[in-house]
Amino acid sequence: MDRDIEKHLMLSEDQLKLSLETTQEFIDMWTKSYQSTVGKLAQVPAFGPVREKQEKIMKSLPLYSKLYTTWVDSNINLQSVLLEATRRTFEKTVEHQVETNSCTKDGKSYIDPEKYKEFYKIWIDTYSDTFKEFMKSGHYASDMGKFASIFIDFQKSNRETIEENFLKPNNLPTMTDVDEIHKELYDLRKTVKDLVRDMKELSKGIPNDKTVRENDVLPEKVEESKSQKVEGYKSQKVDISTKKVESPKKSELPNKKEVHT
Amino acid sequence: MNNTISDTMNYMSLIDSDLHKFVKGVEIIMESPDFSVGTTPSEVIYTEDKMKLIHYIPTTPVQHKVPVLVVYALVNRYYILDLQPDKSVIKKLLNEGLDVYVIDWGYPKGSDKYLTLDDYISGYINNCIDKIREIHKIDNVTLMGVCQGGTFSIIYSALYPDKVKNLITLVAPVDFSTDKCSLNVWARSLDVDKLVDYYGIIPGDLLNSAFLLLDPFRLLIDKYVGMFDKIDCESDENCLKANEENMRNFLRMEKWIFDSPDQAGEAYRQFIKDCYQKNLLIKNEMSIGGKKIDLKNIKMPLLNIMAEFDHLVPNEESKPLLGAVSSTDKEETVFPTGHIGIFVGSKSQKNVCPKIAEWLKPRSA
Q: Would you call A258 an interface residue with chain B, using a CB distance cutoff of 8 Å?
């Protein structure tokens, strides 16, 4: 085994560990000083005619710092896994060299050019297994869950800033406006589908599935159920007409046949 | 010294050979080979919003009486069952004399964000089944659910048992309590309310990133290395054809993997919460549209198929199904393949499809 290589790798491992610890220390220090300076400033109540806008912008600052520190935290964890994967790869490579006698007589290792694919296999297998092990851990899941949650808060704040400062002043629709339409459309589509189904079933002279389920109608009460359904249909129709709904589109009706391929 | 020179020469020749493979692969891609997917002839017989019910044109003069409706997952697309013309689950089932229908969920957009699991199951699936019953003038159909579509099929069969003659589930999760798959672990730490409230429609690319993170080194590096490694450098006709076919199949799979529709937010919210986080389905505590799902209502013949090396739906997620239902005619089979291999691998063609057909034929009269 090549002692020089081993020594060199051990040294870089220690250096990397040290560098990760130093990064963590730096981030902790940065967070503390941020919270006691800019962080406090960001929470100072705003005043004047643009106070609301100013407050919103200031609120996004702590979010940004939170996002940054969480990202660094998860990154440090990932770096540690990378380090562990490298260590395992080295171990396995040495084992493999010993097993396959890929050492010279003076004990120095060399990589047989014919076997670089074997090395690639060891590398990909070890990295893959080590990362899979880490990804499956609750630690990674909570890291990712935390990061995703903060990232969404940050994005949400960005969206609000864009809506407040660009869309609204230019009389452009915001996400809330579009959502209202989506909800209305969804409800209307649902109502139209219910009505189409009711009409279809009424024309067949059979009670609606939904009515039977909801009212738990016994077979001998089917006739009674039918009349209830007709009343229900009428009242729904009145509701719809007040909302000025158009007839269902052709595409929403069944029996459409078109050649695909 | 001599040793070093010979080593260097060896390296050079190996690198040259790999470079040659890479160049050959790129040459094939540059010629834009036709890698169409889902080529089995079909017709759309029913549409509702973005959903389409596809009927495959039968290939045998006579079909079995009970048609099969295939329900695929909302993530990724149904054409994995018909990815390669020579390795198509659909084609194989057609050749066995089965009449096959598939639901294409389409690509949800903003206006679909409020769709719930109830809309998908009691709405779309139920309407498709009614349509097929109407066409064939029969009371019930065979329901074949794949992956998340399998979970939907299980729920449907529990809610509308009279409309399902046979139930086949392929790599379908039902008990989400396992930690064997990272997806289960991640889903439990996910603030799904925050995600759905912000996005409304969950981006398919976001979900795809999660799938890639399951094994990043294999899925982002090794897969591509393997693809070029398969290229053979001989220049005879057969070799060229094989190279082209390999590259076509690779591109087909790439297309499918990254063809991830966005997800309707409300349906996604309920699926993650009730299944992955609370594991309500197997406990008979889940409801959709106000209707309680009792797996004991499943009394029809059931075939549960699993893949031994499934990294997305480990066997532990599917196995409890048999014990949870009331069916007396029930069977489970595990094939030595992976989650995707069960549809496109050569074992799928040799073993999985014939198994389905062999099980189904006597029950489709």
A: yes
The answer on A43 and A75 residing in a single domain is yes
Is the CB of B39 less than 8 angstroms away from the CB of A261?
yes
A118 and A241 belong to one structural domain: no
| d(C-alpha B217, C-alpha B222), whole Å | 6
Determine contact, residues B338/B75, Cβ cutoff 8 Å. Answer: no
Which residues on neighbouring strands pair with residue B102, listed in sequence order?
B54, B70
C-alpha angle B347/B351/B357, rounded to 5°? 140
The rounded distance, in Å, linking the Cα atoms of B357 and B228 is 36
- Please state the ipTM of this predicted complex: 0.83
User: What is chain A's Cα-based Rg?
Assistant: 33
Between CA A135 and CA A142 the distance in angstroms is 10
Please tell me the total count of domains within chain A.
2
- Number of CB pairs, chain A paired with chain B, less than 8 A apart: 108
Residues A57-113: pLDDT tens digits?
Answer: 777 788 888 888 888 888 888 888 888 898 899 888 888 777 776 655 455 555 565
Domain of A68?
A: 3-167
Q: Are residues A163 and A46 in the same domain?
A: yes
Q: List chain B domain ranges.
A: 42-200+264-363
Q: What angle do CA B140, B146, B149 make, to 5 degrees?
A: 75
Q: Is B239 a catalytic residue?
A: no
* CA max distance for chain A: 99
Nearest Cβ partner for B114 among A137, A186, A251? A186
- Cα(B313)–Cα(B332) distance, rounded to whole angstroms? 15
Is A48 a member of any domain? yes
Instruction: Using a cut of 0.90, tell me whether the model's pTM lies above it.
Output: no
Which tokens hold the place of B27? Answer: 């040459």
Classify domain B42-200+264-363 at the CATH topology level: Rossmann fold (3.40.50)
Helix or strand holding residue B166 (H, E): strand B164-170
